[in-house]
Structure prediction request, 312 residues.
Amino acid sequence: MSELDRYLQAATRDNTRRSYRAAIEHFEVSWGGFLPATSDSVARYLAAYAGELSINTLKLRLSALAQWHNSQGFADPTKAPVVRQVFKGIRALHPVQEKQAEPLQLQHLEQVVNCLALEARQAIVDEDTPALLRARRDTALILLGFWRGFRSDELCRLHVEHVQAIAGSGIRVYVPRSKSDRENLGRTYQTPSLQRLCPVQAYIEWIASAALVRGPVFRSIDRWGNLSEQGLHANSVIPLLRQALERAGIAAEGYTSHSLRRGFATWAHRSGWDLKSLMSYVGWKDVKSAMRYVEASPFLGMARLEEKPVEQ
Prediction:
């Protein structure tokens, strides 16, 4: 691979690159389209899969086609009026309610962390190193993911060299790149120590137990207690979280890695954080993105009315 190709590849996230490649293959092989495409063929492609694929999947397919044409120096057919009108019509005739991850409520966070603490104590008694490592890792991942509102890919890309944690004070984390960091400038996040459910103490205990001094923070652990040299894959966070929730007696089907982020945003919103502070803390650039994660209670105002009688 040339230096030019290496930099071009680095400009696109791995997940996005794989998704785009699959989308182009679907257009060419599954549907039988030709590249470069015409606006008419793209419109017919959308119509062919309108009732079969979700709106978000169709949007991804359009983005992939647009990227292919732009990178190859061809005019982008997805911007044509006919394509935009067809997509608008699909939205009108195939409306769907967006599925969102269940936010992890604070009481459930405490429940799962308490369960992991019990598992860690039992592992110490049993001298079960693999079980102890998994309990400490999962506790740190869940608490840091919740209180910092991190995505699964951000958690999996954390490196020990980029984290400074001081017991009783706080934790400072540098994330070189993330989905919201379009310019790949990197960003530093800080979180204070807490009296309970503390992400700082959980991180310190995990790093000490695993004896990590460099490389990925969160790694897979085999049955003998050996740690992988590679970081966890982002897709592994969902089963990890669900398994921990189920062991704590919580029905986990509706939870995903976004549950940590949505859980924190919901807690902060209900705790009185203003939207600007929440956006700055988590790293959202626009209000629309932030509000997708906030689970607002429609009866919150009514409950406050009940607390204080209306003066006559």
Summary: The chain has two domains: 3-93, 106-257. The mean pLDDT is 86.
